[in-house]
Amino acid sequence: MSDTGSPYADTRDMYAVHAVFRREFALLPGLVRAVEPGDADRARIVTDHIKLLIFFLHDHHSSEDAVLWPRLLTRAPREIDPVVRLAEGHHEGIETLSVEVDKLLHTWSGSAASDNAEALAEELEQLVVVLCEHMDLEEKLVLPLVERHIFATEWEKMVEGGVASIPPEVIPVMAGMLMYEGGEESLPPEVRAVLADAAPQAYAAYAECVHGTPAPARSSDVVFGRPLVALAATVDQM
Fold it and tell me: Could you tell me if residue 4 is inside a domain?
């Protein structure tokens, strides 16, 4: 049971994850464009950061694909099926764009050529727009449904499964990414005591290397994209 006293999922941790994605992905095009042509060392730093974020995103979406969508389609009113299918479609589109980003990274990271950088930055911008649209949809329409149709035990198992697939060496940095805007409450209880002190320090050092500052802009300051409002009038109360 969640700490709210309800047998259903407490989705507050999802907002911390979304803050990470909004902040870090929205900063990527600028990071790529800021690399001096021919600076292969800096290009590799940015490339490794992009690959880490895409791994995090893929891991997160894989967990949702396995747990959320099948159960919502089975348990929630049929009227919300288009919302679930739209969210699934977003995942497919994001995965396609991520594959294209990976291809462009392979071309750019070795040479840091300016024309390759611009192609990569533009592809990342497309990814950010779709990703922001997807997260807006989830927060407006999907998470309220999760809180009424997905049990806390199922949600917790989904989160635990995602954490289990993360390589141990990057867990402190990824935990720090979450805590940067979400605080200790954004971490699963089983790792909170271990990482509450170390994770912010790990992310500060990482951010200094990647962003040039231990305190990069927060998600509310960097988001771009367009909110998805279609369907809201008919399904957000179901």
Answer: no
Task: Give which of 151, 162, 140 is closest to 231, Cα–Cα.
Answer: 140
Is the distance from CB of 118 to CB of 33 less than 8 angstroms? Answer: yes
In a domain, 7, yes or no: no
Pairwise CA distance, residues 24 & 46, whole Å: 12
* Count of beta carbons in the 10 Å neighbourhood of residue 7: 10
Report the alpha-carbon distance of residue 238 to residue 229 in Å, rounded: 16
What distance separates the 2 farthest-apart alpha carbons in the chain?
A: 56
Q: Are 54 and 126 in contact (CB under 8 A)?
A: no
Mean pLDDT of 160-172: 89
Q: Note whether residue 183 is domain-resident.
A: yes
Can you give the CATH number for the domain in which 175 is found? 1.20.120
**Segment (H or E) for 145:** helix 143-149
pTM comes to: 0.89
| Of 158 and 163, more confident | 158
Q: Note the pLDDT of residue 161.
A: 84
Q: Strand, helix or coil at 223?
A: coil
Query: Could you tell me if residue 1 is inside a domain?
Result: no
Q: What is the pLDDT of residue 191?
A: 81
